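Page 37, continued from 36.
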């Protein structure tokens, strides 16, 4: 089976990338070991930028239907429930064109993303198939698959033109033993085989700690907080979250002496949370012990092999940002890969992927590790000193970091900054007018004064040009003393310009 791009892993990151490449018309094969979406509890939060990316997939309404906006923020409290630190929430529309935070159940999101693939006959999904080996050379990549046999039958389900409609035909047809691709992106999670094939090393940012994670479905109304609580109790650090509907999440740190297998059993889970909920109030949905890691790979590309998502980095979930970071990898990588496959950009464009993304994701992981040190203090003396420090003044308010991209395909002080998504005068969100191409936004005077060669460059790149797109949009560059901005397809700035001459110079980077 041949294709432009093979994606190993159809978790949220692989499925997002497949939707992006599918929409661009590339021939894509996605290989996924599990026949069904992974059912255990994992991510429950994503941010406004991530929702904006789901919007770019044409799936905003579908994702809204399975999530809820988070308006109440997060509180860090001590063992006496006194507030130490706050991430403020807001019901207002944020800079990304929607709520700043959203809560959801990861398996439901993955179902939406997989269903999105059905729109693209050029995307074939081989589910229930495991990649056993990866071989790459200058011409392409060969991925060797297992036989797909589970209990004696082939379980592959294919999306795409050759997708059989009845199970027997599926079983007969779904037996390719290898996939050949021009490019392979490993979205194959923390134990990534593609990362090993690249030969990357993992840089350790210092936090590795087992936690029990479980979801419960409330069966009657209880007086529980409708925001996230990080209980910094040295006797048993714990996170409590309101997810969606009646679903509640508890994450409980394992203490020395805890048996990871035993603690996940219902009879041991309930006593840990009896202060808030009992088996008479709720049904235990799923529980599992995870070790939270903080690592970043060095080496996200070698030749035709690339990695994204947990394959490239892992963060403890105290900021709810692991999946978000993986989705940001996709949006950075997709537009570059599309142009390289089409032959409109050299493959060196892909060398900007890791340098741009690495410092960005590292800023989030480092903050999560610092928050982890606050939450995970189990020495009573250390916790008492921490409480005294925080309680000496007002509760500290912290925000998400807003790092720019590292060095890469952008220029100037504002290059590599995420442009917001305000509303246009007609009420649409900005990206709805921009599509998936480059975009030039600016004051009419600067845009009208550019030379013919720059206009031709915009035309050749398929750039959308918006002159005077309304005060809500223009405020961004005007408050920074600029007259125009050029946006990349991922909505990060290629650069900003004070006049037509600078706009021509920034536009040259589209090539
Ligand atoms: C308890 C917990 C809470 C979390 N909370 C949050 C949160 O609130 N917000 C947030 O943003 N993130 C959160 N995360 C992180 C988030 O769940 C992960 O970052 C996300 O799942 C990573 O997605 P991925 O697609 O990169 O990898 P995965 O979800 O691991 O998917 C990888 C896929 O690759 C497949 N695969 C692997 N190897 C092969 C092979 N050889 N052949 C075929 N298929 C293969 C696997 O079957 C799997 O489906 C949390 C994680 C945990 C554990």
């Amino acid at each position: 089976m041949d294709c432009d791009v093979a994606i190993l892993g159809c978790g949220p990151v692989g499925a997002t990338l497949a939707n992006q490449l599918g929409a661009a018309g590339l021939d894509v094969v996605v290989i996924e070991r599990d026949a069904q979406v992974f059912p255990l509890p994992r991510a429950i939060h994503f941010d406004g930028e991530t929702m904006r990316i789901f919007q770019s997939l044409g799936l905003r309404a579908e994702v809204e239907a399975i999530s809820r906006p988070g308006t109440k923020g997060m509180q860090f409290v001590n063992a006496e429930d006194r507030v130490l630190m706050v991430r403020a929430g807001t019901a207002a529309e944020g800079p990304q064109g929607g709520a700043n935070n959203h809560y959801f159940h990861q398996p439901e999101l993955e179902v939406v993303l997989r269903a999105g693939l059905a729109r693209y006959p050029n995307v074939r999904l081989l589910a229930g198939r495991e990649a056993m080996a990866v071989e790459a050379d200058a011409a392409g990549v060969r991925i060797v698959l297992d036989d797909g046999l589970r209990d004696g039958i082939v379980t592959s389900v294919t999306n795409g033109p050759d997708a059989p409609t009845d199970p027997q035909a599926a079983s007969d047809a779904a037996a390719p033993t290898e996939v050949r691709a021009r490019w392979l992106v490993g979205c194959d999670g923390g134990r990534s085989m593609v990362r090993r094939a690249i030969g990357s090393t993992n840089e350790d940012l210092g936090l590795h700690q087992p936690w029990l994670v479980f979801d419960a479905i409330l069966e009657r109304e209880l007086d529980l907080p409708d925001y996230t609580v990080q209980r910094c109790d040295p006797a048993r650090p714990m996170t409590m979250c309101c997810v969606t509907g009646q679903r509640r999440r508890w994450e409980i740190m394992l203490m020395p002496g805890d048996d990871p297998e035993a603690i996940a059993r219902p009879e041991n889970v309930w006593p840990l949370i009896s202060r808030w909920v009992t088996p008479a109030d709720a049904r235990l949905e799923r529980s599992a012990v995870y070790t939270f890691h903080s690592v970043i790979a060095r080496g996200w590309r070698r030749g035709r092999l690339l990695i994204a998502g947990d394959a490239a980095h892992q963060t403890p979930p105290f900021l709810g940002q692991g999946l978000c970071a993986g989705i940001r990898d996709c949006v950075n990588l997709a537009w570059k890969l599309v142009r390289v496959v089409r032959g409109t950009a050299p493959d060196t464009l892909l060398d900007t992927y890791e340098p741009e993304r690495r410092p960005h994701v590292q800023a989030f992981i480092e903050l999560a590790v610092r928050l982890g040190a606050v939450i995970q203090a189990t020495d009573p003396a250390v916790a008492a000193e921490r409480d005294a420090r925080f309680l000496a003044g007002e509760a500290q308010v912290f925000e998400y970091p807003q790092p720019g991209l590292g060095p890469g395909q952008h220029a100037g002080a504002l290059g590599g900054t995420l442009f917001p998504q305000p509303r246009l005068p007609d009420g649409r969100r900005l990206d709805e007018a921009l599509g998936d191409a480059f975009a030039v936004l600016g004051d009419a005077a600067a845009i009208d004064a550019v030379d013919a060669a720059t206009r031709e460059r915009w035309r050749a790149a398929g750039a959308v040009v918006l002159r005077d797109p309304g005060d809500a949009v223009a405020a961004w560059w005007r408050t920074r003393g600029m007259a125009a901005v050029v946006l990349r397809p991922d909505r990060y700035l290629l650069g900003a310009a004070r006049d037509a001459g600078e706009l021509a110079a920034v536009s040259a980077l589209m090539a």
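The mean pLDDT is 92. Flag for discussion at group meeting. Residues 430-510 form one domain.
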